[in-house]
Design brief:
Shape: globular
Radius of gyration: 17 Å
Order of helices and strands: HHHHHHHHH
Helix content: over 70%
Largest sheet: none
Number of domains: 1
Structural class: mainly alpha
Distance between the termini: 43 Å
Number of strands: 0
Strand content: under 5%
């Protein structure tokens, strides 16, 4: 089911001549990836979302991967070496996104029950990287999102970064309070 979501969205974007939205669909997939990651963080406080945690995490990875592929195709015109012609500031933002996506891959590959059983406590340690990767994804969005221009989507990246930071800090504060209570 999670695999079909990006494919259905892509089909809708191609069939419905949505103008600028269809042309900038890599940005849409990037925002969908970040939104999915934020929803994964919210599952701690929202019991209604908990059953969808794994699906949201997988969707975030798939949206992020597709976002990356489309960005190479559209922004870099199919040649990753074109990255060298962008400003160092923009390159750093793109590398933040690449690092976040590469960090999501092991989480995606180990998000199944058999991996949890096989990895034991190592699974939990690995998946604690999720909030950090969400923060890195939000940083990428605010840093290099919407291809260096001003648009409503670029203005939306600032609240997304702030929301990511707030959720990250809430999770960290809760973890610290649990540790101090147990000692």
């Amino acid at each position: 089911m999670v695999v079909l979501l990006p494919l259905n969205l892509e089909l809708l974007l191609r069939l419905a001549a949505l103008g600028a939205l269809a042309e900038r669909r890599e940005e849409l997939y990037g925002f969908l990836s970040l939104l999915s990651l934020l929803l994964v963080l919210l599952t701690r406080w929202s019991p209604g979302l908990r059953p969808y945690r794994r699906a949201l995490g997988l969707a975030a990875s798939l949206y992020g991967l597709y976002h990356g592929l489309l960005a190479v195709q559209h922004v870099l015109q199919g040649d990753a070496s074109n990255l060298l012609f962008l400003s160092p500031y923009t390159q750093a933002g793109i590398w933040a996104g690449v690092a976040a996506l590469l960090g999501l891959l092991p989480l995606t590959l180990t998000s199944f029950g058999w991996a949890q059983r096989r990895m034991g406590r190592g699974w939990k340690r690995l998946h604690r990287a999720g909030p950090w990767l969400t923060l890195l994804s939000a940083l990428h969005t605010a840093w290099s999102g919407v291809h260096f221009g001003l648009s409503p989507l670029s203005w939306a990246s600032v609240p997304l970064l702030l929301l990511s930071l707030a959720l990250f800090l809430l999770r960290k504060r809760r973890a610290v309070s649990l540790v101090t209570r147990s000692s």
